[in-house]
Amino acid sequence: MKRVFLLTAFCTAMSAAAKMPQATPEGRSQPAKLTAKTVNPDLIREACIGAIKREETAFKRLDVTGVSESIGSSDSVATCSVDAILFEGSGVAAPRGTITTSKVTFSVRVDVATGETSVARVDEAAARQAAQITLASMFIDMKAVSTSPDKVTYSATIADKKCMVDVTTQGSGEPKRWLVGRIECKR
Q1: In the chain, what's the furthest Cα-to-Cα distance?
Q2: How many domains does the chain have?
Q3: 118 and 143, same structural domain?
Q4: Residue 159: which domain range?
Q5: Strand, helix or coil at 37?
Q6: CATH number of the CATH domain containing 152
Q7: pLDDT at 27
């Protein structure tokens, strides 16, 4: 019984000693180092939300819909992905006016040692478009068959199918835009 009690007391004392400030060679005490693993996740979430709320103005309001945090590559950095609805326009600050809404995602980096945050808006639509263009160029072999100032015909091989695509500016008005006129695929 005494051994169990002494072992428990010893473990408790060692745990408490590990949490105490460390002494430097000059005799000054040093606070325990904060890491992303030791900081309460709720505090990290609040820091992330606070960082994006600083982006608000009289004509711009953010309503947070979701937050997910993760520990960065170093223990002193945590990152959050914050989903929000962005309200912009004169109607945000006044009872009347126009408001546009859009769903946005922010990436927030939190240095847990200093509390500094950095915010970047993630443009998912542009990233998606870049990925689609890259995938299309990898899997679609396309060559121009005929060209004119207002019409281009492409030959393409897509998943073992031979396709012909006509792209034209006829009927698009000003400014001229290229519109797909015809797609025809055969095995």
Answers
A1: 96
A2: 2
A3: no
A4: 139-186
A5: coil
A6: 3.30.200.150
A7: 58
